[in-house]
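=== Given protein ===
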Amino acid sequence: MRLLCIAALAAGTAFAGQASAAVNLLANGSFETGDFTGWSYAGVTPTGFPAAVLNYNSASGYPTGAFGEAIPPDDTSSPSPDAVGDHAAYFVADGATETLSQSVFLTAGQYTIGFSVYVPLNGFGNPGNATFTGSVAGVNLANFTVDASTPQQWMHFAGVANIAADGFYDTSFLYNSAPGAAGDFVVDRAYIVAGDVTGGIPEPGTWALMILGFGGAGAMLRMSRRRTAWA
C-alpha cells in the first residue's frame, strides 16, 4: 500500500510538472512588451485611434488607457502559462476594420488554446455596435457583439485544437465597428500550449509512470501475501 501511495504521489507530481512546464507558443501573447511585437496588424480606422496596448488600472486617455476608464487585470481562470501582467490589447476605433494576427508553426498533435476578452463600460454605452471574432490556431473560439455581452466582466474562451498535419496556423482577432461612437474590446492572454493542460488525458509518459508504480505496488502486495502464508 505504501508503494501504491508513492506511485499516486508521483503521478500527481507529473501532472503538476506538465502544467508548470507549459510554454506559450504564441509570441507576446499577453502583450507585455507594451506593443504588438510578434503580431501583425492591419487596419482601416477612418477616424483614427487604431488598436493599441493599454496599461491595467490606468485612468489615463488613449492609447495607454481606455479614455479614462481603468481596466482591471484579467481575473479569469485561464490555463495560459503567462502571468496576468500589466498590459492588454485595446480595440476602440469607430467605423473600423482591424485585424491582429500571428502565424505559428505547429506539429501534428493536440493543443490547448484560448484568450480573454473584456468590454469596457464606456464602449458599451456608445450607440454604435461592434463585433469581435477570435480564432486561435485556426479554430474559431468567439464571435459576438458588444451589445450581446456583459460590460466590465472578463470572459475567457478556450478550446482544443487537433492539428492533423505540420504547418503554419493563424491566430487572429478581428474587430469591426459601426460609424460614430462604437463599442470597444480589450483582449489579453492569448495562448497555444502543446497537449492538454486542463487536467484531461495524461501524456504517455505519465501513463507509463502510473503503470510502473501500480505494477510495483502489485508485486509488493504479492510478496507480502507469500510471507504471510510461509509464516
User: Anything to note?
Assistant: DSSP finds three helices and ten strands in the chain.
